[in-house]
Write a structure and sequence with these properties.
This protein is of the alpha/beta class. It has helices at about 5-10, 15-25, 35-45, 85-105, 140-155, 235-245, 255-275, 340-350, 350-355, 360-370; strands at about 30, 50-55, 65-75, 110, 155-165, 170-180, 185-190, 195-200, 200, 215-220, 220-225, 250-255, 280-285, 285-295, 305-310, 315, 330-340. Helix content is about 30%, strand content about 25%. A hairpin with a 5-residue loop joins strand 5 and strand 6. The relative contact order is 0.16. N-(aminocarbonyl)-beta-alanine binds near residues 196, 254, 255 and 259. It catalyses: 3-(carbamoylamino)-2-methylpropanoate + H2O + 2 H(+) = (R)-3-amino-2-methylpropanoate + NH4(+) + CO2; 3-(carbamoylamino)propanoate + H2O + 2 H(+) = beta-alanine + NH4(+) + CO2.
């Protein structure tokens, strides 16, 4: 099967057809930005893709623009999953360092890595050891030290999704996004709210639903939240970040083509439209093979990998437009320059927050949660 991305396929059309299909699929066109020589050299020397865009919006007249460059970073693992664990981590860290260097060379202000970036996505195996040794303290672990250093070096807010070990609470494990300030200081963390129980994504074997609510982190570069992977299928999860005032919501993910690729280009974009904020959708890349076979509980033969992580990271804008996606097969960094004031302009135009009927939803949900709930169905008397 072809490995081409949608963008690579569109590029084969006639110029007129390209304009029309992009208008329909990607909305108001984003502008390509010039990329610095330093970023180009890093991408060339370390073999990854870079892309930079700008979302066009009309500047407010009463307040200064709040220009922010949002970076999404996708990568494959570096060493085989049979290598010593810390070697695996160190090799990924070295790779991610180059990708963050490139994001900085493209002027990124706020960046997010993919879900559980420090490790292969081993949840498919259902084996606890050795994999859980990748879990680490959110503030003091190896990745926290590394990301804090990179954030301070570049004055960049960095969101670092990891597997967290909470020693204060009985060595419990969490799927957590840790947010570091542009100063390098730890700001806070959010734990994944929705745990998949689909296909080979057997994550409930490892950790349970998050207990951090829907925090929005107020940073130098806007109000940032994180809806981790499977949470993107839950519109109310997206909505709660919006109600708390998010301007940028990242969706760090790990998902494979056979399961979710047709959904990928829709969900982040839809969330961005419905909640009038920017969304950075990030997916890992590559095929990861594990030492022992595992089954998917579907009667099919046991296997050692669970398919191709298709990358395709992108940024969605509140007016329904989006950047092109990164490659389906290569590591990469995509930067999108936005004016955060655009969130308010879009709210003024579409009035989704004013026309929402939160009180109706609250009442309906409160009823639904009662054990004796009866669905509100009006039956055709002829039935
Ligand atoms: N990591 C994760 O939540 N994956 C679930 C698969 C999907 O939601 O596409």
């Amino acid at each position: 099967m072809s490995t081409a991305s949608v963008e690579e396929i569109i590029a084969k059309l006639s110029p007129d057809d390209q304009v029309q299909i992009k208008r329909l699929l990607q909305g108001n066109p984003v502008e390509a930005l010039e990329i610095s020589d330093a970023a180009q050299a890093l991408a060339r020397d370390h073999d990854f893709e870079i892309a930079a865009f700008k979302t066009n919006s009309v500047a407010d007249v009463t307040r200064p623009a709040r220009k922010v460059r949002i970076a999404v970073i996708q990568n494959s693992i570096v060493l085989p999953t049979t290598a010593p664990l810390m070697d695996q981590y160190k090799a990924i860290e070295a790779r991610v360092e180059k990708l963050i260097d490139a994001a900085a060379a493209m002027g990124a202000n706020v960046a997010c890595l993919q879900e559980a970036w420090t490790a292969p996505f081993f949840f498919c195996t259902r084996e606890k050891r050795p994999w859980l040794e990748f879990a680490e303290d959110a503030r003091e672990g190896p990745s926290a030290k590394f990301i804090s250093r990179m954030a301070a070096k570049y004055g960049m807010v960095i969101v670092s999704p990891i597997l967290e070990r909470d020693s204060a609470h009985g060595q419990t494990i969490w799927n957590t996004a840790v947010v570091f300030s542009h100063t390098g200081a730890y700001i806070g963390k959010h734990r994944k709210n929705h745990i998949p129980r689909v296909g080979d994504f057997n994550e409930s074997t490892y950790y349970f639903e998050g207990n951090t609510g829907h925090p929005v982190f107020e940073t130098k570069f806007g109000k940032v939240a994180i809806n981790i992977c499977y949470g993107r299928h839950h519109p109310l999860n997206w909505m709660m970040f919006g109600l708390n005032g998010a301007e940028i919501v990242f969706n760090p993910s790990a998902t494979v083509g056979a399961l979710s690729e047709p959904l990928w280009s829709i969900e982040a974009r839809n969330a961005s439209i419905a909640n009038s904020y920017f969304v950075g959708a990030i997916n890992r890349v590559g095929t990861e093979s594990f030492p022992n076979e595992f089954t998917s509980g579907d009667g099919k033969p046991a296997h050692k990998d669970f398919g191709h992580f298709y990358g395709s990271s992108y940024v969605a804008n509140p007016d329904g437009s989006r950047t092109p996606g990164l490659s389906r097969v290569r590591d990469g960094v995509l930067v999108n320059e936005v004016d955060l004031n655009f969130c308010m302009a879009v709210k003024d135009k579409w009035c989704f927050q004013m026309t929402a009927r939160y009180e109706l939803y609250a009442e309906g949900l409160a009823n639904y949660l009662k054990p004796d709930f009866q669905p509100q169905v009006v039956r055709d008397p002829s039935l």
